[in-house]
Amino acid sequence: FSAGPDVPLVATIHDLAFLRHPEFFTRRGTQVFVRSLDELRRRAVIVMCSSHATLADCATHGFDENRLRLVPLGVRLRTVGAAEAAQVRGRLGLPAEYLLSVGTLEPRKNLPRLIEAHRDLGSDVPPLVVAGSVGWGRDDVRARPIVNDRVNFIGHVADADLPAVYAGASVLCYPSLMEGFGLPILEAMSQGTPVVTSAGTSTEEVAGGAAVLVDPYSVSSIAEGIRDALSRRSELSQLGVERAKGASWDGTAELVVRAYRDAVRMGAR
């Protein structure tokens, strides 16, 4: 926030999870976020939000609705061939069939419940591959007793390899407790991969009716959602591809430009 007082400030708020779920964050991190939020309330001419859910949270927490702009994220469509998917799968040591989870290892990603649901489904479903860097939390989910040899943590995946990892998955499992958007949903759909995600959050919004929705607090609901997605792969694949086609970065860019133009007009008043 180093710009002078006469320069209009435009900011993006992806989510206010630190206010709704402070238990998911470090105390220092929450303090920094709260101070930044206070500054944005005071100074930002325009605040861009990637989902209706985040926009509503901002309005609830003191932002003038006239300053809020909805700017959903997009996805780049890139076809991954069978040969490329097999090459990446071999290099990363992935099984021929697998369920996939993508995201930083942090509490709100809800991995313990996902892993428990996967365990309860037994050997009738493919193994679970978890892609994502280590984040933060009270403990390391990888060391929990529920983790078994059918759960494979592969760490950070390079951006160049990620489309192939999505394309090779039977289902993306994304039962997050709270997101500002949920970009892995669109990334998976762009590769025709069925998605299981949470009802009642921004992820339902992003899914746009093209995913299986579950109660993220219920292990049995997550398990049933995975089973349902596996039985409807062809249908969900087609729905997901169509949903991804409607979420382009060009559309996002147009909304960003519009927001900056609004900021210039408002700052000139």
Structure report:
- With 269 residues, this protein is of the alpha/beta class.
- 43% of the residues lie in helices and 14% in strands.
- The mean pLDDT is 92.
> Quick one: biggest sheet?
6 strands, parallel
Strand arrangement, largest sheet?
6-5-4-7-8-9
Helical content (DSSP H or I, runs of 4+): 40-55%
Number of helices: 11
Strand-residue fraction?
5-15%
The global form is globular
Report Rg. Answer: 20 Å
Q: Could you tell me how far the N terminus lies from the C terminus, measured between alpha carbons in angstroms?
A: 21 Å
Structural class: alpha/beta
| SSE succession | EHHEHEHEHEEHEHEHEHHH
Strand elements, count: 9
The poorly predicted ranges are: none
* Mean of pLDDT: 92
